[in-house]
Structure formats: C-alpha cells, structure tokens
Amino acid sequence: MGIANDDAVKQFECLMEGVDESLKQTFQNMHQGYPTETLTRFLRAREWNVDKAHKMLVDALNWRVQNEIDNILTKPILPAELYRKVRESALIGLSGYSKEGMPVIAVGVGHSTYDKASVHYYVQSHIQLNEYRDRIILPMASEKYGRPISTCIKVLDMTGLKFSALNQVKLLTVITTIDDLNYPEKTDTYYIVNAPYIFSACWKVVRPLLQERTRKKIQVLQGCGKDDLLKIMDYASLPHFCKREGSGSSRHSRNGMIDNCFSVDHPFHQELYNYVKQQSNPTPPLKQGSFHVAFPEPDANDARIAKTIESEFHRLEDQKDQNGLVRSLSKQLSDLDIKIN
Q1: Residues 179-192: what's their mean pLDDT?
Q2: Between 321 and 111, where is the model more confident?
Q3: From CA 158, how far away is CA 192, in angstroms rounded?
Q4: Nearest residue to 241 via CA among 186, 192, 175, 176
C-alpha cells in the first residue's frame, strides 16, 4: 500500500479503539476477521483522508445498530410466494467466481421491474444479499483461496432497458446510496454487457459526473461480453446471458432454471433463503411485514447523477415520440399521395 497508506491505516485503527462497545461489536460482523481490509476500503472511499473515513465508518456502524442490520439475516421475506415475486422482479444472482476467487454477481438491469412488492422488501432483500455475501460468500472464498477476498465482480446485463426504467431511478438511488455509504469499495469491477442505445446515450452524459475512481471500475463490453469475461473467469462462471452470441436475455436460459442465476430455484438463492429461515428464531412466522430500514440521503453528486439520468431519459423519450410522430405523418402523406395519384 505504501508508507503513507500504512500510516493512515494505523491512525484509523487508533481512532477505532475509542468507539463505543456496541459499535465495536457490529464492526466485527462487518469485517468478518479482516479489520485492516475493511478500514482500507473506507479509506479508499474517502481518498485516504483518515478523519473523513473515520466519520464514514462510524456513521455506517451507527446505521447498522439503529436499523438492526446484524439481525437482518434472521428476517425471511414471507410468505415464500412474495419472496419469489421479489426475485422475479429484482434480477440478481451469483453465477460463479473469477480466476482470482472473487464472486461474480450478475444483475439483470434491463429486465428488473421492481414492481411486485413495496420498496421496503426490495431494500430488505438487497441488504440481505449484501450481508450474505460479506458474512458467508466472501469468508468461504477467502478460506478456499488462502488470502483475504473482500470484493466481488458485477456483470450488469442491459438487455431490455426501456424508458419505463425511469420509474426505478428513485429506488435504485436508495439502494446505491446504501451501498456507497455502508458497503463502500465492495465491487472490484463493473462489466456492462448487451448495452442498447438508451444506455449508450445516458452513459455519455453520466460518465463525466463520476469520480475517477468509479469510472475506472466500469467497463462497457461489446455484445454479451463473453470473450472479454473468459479472460478473467471460466466458462462455467459466466452469467447465463453471456453464454450466447448476440444480445442476451436476463430472464431465460436454454439450460433451464439451474443455469439461470436469477431464478429463485437456482442453488445460490435456495441456499440463501434456507439460511435466513434457519437463522430466524425460534421459527419464522407464517407472514411477516417488511424489515424497514432508514433510507440515507444521497450526497450532492449522487443526487445530481440521478437527476441527470432522469433528464436524459425524458429527453430521449421526447425524441423518440417526435421521431414516431414524424414517421406517422410521413406515412400519412405517402398514403395520401398514393390515393391522389
């Protein structure tokens, strides 16, 4: 890391010795035996400014305590049919591991609708996925590969992205803000695949607004990205939408639901759901309300990015409507000309 960075970690460690015992306890759940790596993540998120990183981590720990995040893996989403609806409308899953041992998280951005449950269920499910990743998946990977593994790779499938996605911007802003403030630097690289025109147009205006550190993490791949992704992972770990030529499909897989890592029947989701049910004490209720979590306010730059995306979607939609009107008028004039002649 370098001498300066090592000194920053040591200063950070000294500051953490003075926090309340309740925060130290939840910090253990957060770092899972790797406190130095966790402190380093928060330092990176605040450009190695120790005071800012310390405030960020203390705020995150207070958020965990106040919202009982340490217990969220004991709160199953019930009934099972509701959980199925959440999974079918918020497409995410674990497809495998990179050659370096990092979990490969697949996200079906284009086909996710987030319209089958309240926002609180989607937030609850997202945090449970984060906590299961950090408490179960990453420690298992670290043990298997014999070194600390604290980050994952995300492959984002843009297949099916439409103007209606504008309705999801606010929910996605909530989820992104929770990740930025409480789970910083957990993703090593974001790979964008199957990007349609609407994404490319938005990316041009959003990219300059991102911090350089974030921009470097995002790679937009050609087509389904198979050739590029095979350089960092085996074929078996490719998300199902990357295993075919041409545009992918987040919803369907030729090899059935077992290959589709978004499916509630996929082994990853079955293991996660069964784990949460087993952790619930003494037995899960037949029906349960959503686990409400306080939504943090996005920082000014994140709010500006969300507003920019919203404005660009509106502009593209207006442009599409105008083009459609022009085509309609042209056809009508063409039909009229034929009739006159």
Answers
A1: 96
A2: 111
A3: 7
A4: 192
Q: Indicate the burial class of 101 (C-beta count within 10 angstroms; 0-12, 13-18, 19 or more).
A: middle
Distance between alpha carbon 242 and the CA centroid of its chain, in Å? 18
Exposure pattern of 184-204 as b/e (b: 16+ CB <10 Å)? bbbbbbbbbbbbeebbeebbe
Helices 119-132, 169-182: inter-axial angle, 10-degree rounding = 30
CA atoms within 13 A on the CB side of 298: 18
Query: Which pTM was predicted?
Result: 0.85
Q: Which H or E run includes 153?
A: strand 152-157
Question: For the CA atoms of the chain, what is the radius of gyration?
Answer: 22
Selection from 8-12, 173-177, 253-257, 303-307 with the highest mean pLDDT? 8-12
> Left if phi > 0, otherwise alpha if psi is -120 to 50, otherwise beta: which for 224?
alpha
Give the pLDDT confidence score for residue 283 in this predicted structure: 61
The answer to whether residues 185 and 138 touch, using CB atoms and an 8 Å cutoff, is no
Distance CA 43, CA 194 (A): 33
Peptide linkage before 208 cis (omega within 30 of 0): no
Angle at CA of residue 153, ends 147 and 154, nearest 5°: 160
- The Cα 269–Cα 128 span in angstroms is 11
Residue 246 corresponds to which tokens in the numbers above?
Answer: 């041409």
The domains of the chain, with CATH numbers, are 3-66 (1.10.8.20), 72-279 (3.40.525.10)
**pLDDT for the residue 75:** 93
Q: What amino acid is encoded at 84 in this protein?
A: R
